[in-house]
Task: inverse folding
């Protein structure tokens, strides 16, 4: 994506102030480096600033004269834009207006190069630049499966390495990830924990370096680990059940609330849930602690 087609907040505001129609073709934009495991994290978020990258979506066939401020801005870069390959007009992107659906609908997105699986969910309509790909879906349980250690282990043995520990993440190889069979109840449970994680990832205490919030960071990792356990049970049911290791049933027995059902202070509720599951005598804690007694899991987690 040409840098001339991507603008920061100051330019975004100026273009709209100069001509309000500019807002119609300015789309929230993220780059591959903004894609983190679980969710999109625009670079400027670390400084607690608002979304700060916008794509000038001058699609093929756009009536550029309807956006005079945009046309003037792109005109400053006309020589560079005219050197692009393709048959589009100098001010046009190679994409068509119909491509907007791919970006505006809920989706999983992932960078083309990463050291492990790092799929993010986006329901804010971000436009995504190369090198990154997207998978149109609102099935959060799928996001949960893709971000597990089991899938990372499989993918590392399927996709080519590009440099050092980094792997190539493209649809050709991502489509080969085997998704385990599961019933609606199991999907709903994984989705529920994913919703918890997505909510927690947005909370400042989870990212805080203040020691009084250290437990919140541990909580997020523990919920990640619970999804690992559930997905191991889906892939290796016989091996886990042989050792009396169960994750779905103990979790279903808890009748965990949906995110929207938690009233009042959600963080307090999540802390209570975490501490309950983290008790030494809770079957989830016990089964997670002894997961590496299963040979296949020791191999996946490089403990063999």
Result:
């Amino acid at each position: 994506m040409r840098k001339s087609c991507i603008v920061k907040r100051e330019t975004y505001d100026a273009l709209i102030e100069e001509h309000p129609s500019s807002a119609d073709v300015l789309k929230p934009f993220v780059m591959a480096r903004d894609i983190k495991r679980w969710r999109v994290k625009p670079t400027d978020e670390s400084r607690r600033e608002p979304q700060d990258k916008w794509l000038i979506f001058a699609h093929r066939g756009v009536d550029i004269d309807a956006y005079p401020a945009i046309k003037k801005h792109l005109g400053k870069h006309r020589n560079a834009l005219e050197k692009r390959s393709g048959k589009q007009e100098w001010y046009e992107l190679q994409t068509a207006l119909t491509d907007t659906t791919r970006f505006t609908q809920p989706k999983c997105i992932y960078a083309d190069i990463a050291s492990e699986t790092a799929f993010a969910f986006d329901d804010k309509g971000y436009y995504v630049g190369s090198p990154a790909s997207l998978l149109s879906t609102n099935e959060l349980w799928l996001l949960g499966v893709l971000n597990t250690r089991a899938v990372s282990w499989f993918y590392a043995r399927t996709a080519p390495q590009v440099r050092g520990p980094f792997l190539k993440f493209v649809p050709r190889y991502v489509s080969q990830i085997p998704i385990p069979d599961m019933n609606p109840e199991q999907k709903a449970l994984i989705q529920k924990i994913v919703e918890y994680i997505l909510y927690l990832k947005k909370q400042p205490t989870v990212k805080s370096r203040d020691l009084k919030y250290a437990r919140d960071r541990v909580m997020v990792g523990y919920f990640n680990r619970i999804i690992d356990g559930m997905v191991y049970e889906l892939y290796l049911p016989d091996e886990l059940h042989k050792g009396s290791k169960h994750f779905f049933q103990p979790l279903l027995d808890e009748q965990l609330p949906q995110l929207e059902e938690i009233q009042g202070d959600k963080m307090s509720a999540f802390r209570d849930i975490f501490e309950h599951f983290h008790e030494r005598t809770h079957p989830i804690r016990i089964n997670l602690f002894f997961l590496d007694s299963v040979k296949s899991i020791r191999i996946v987690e490089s403990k063999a």
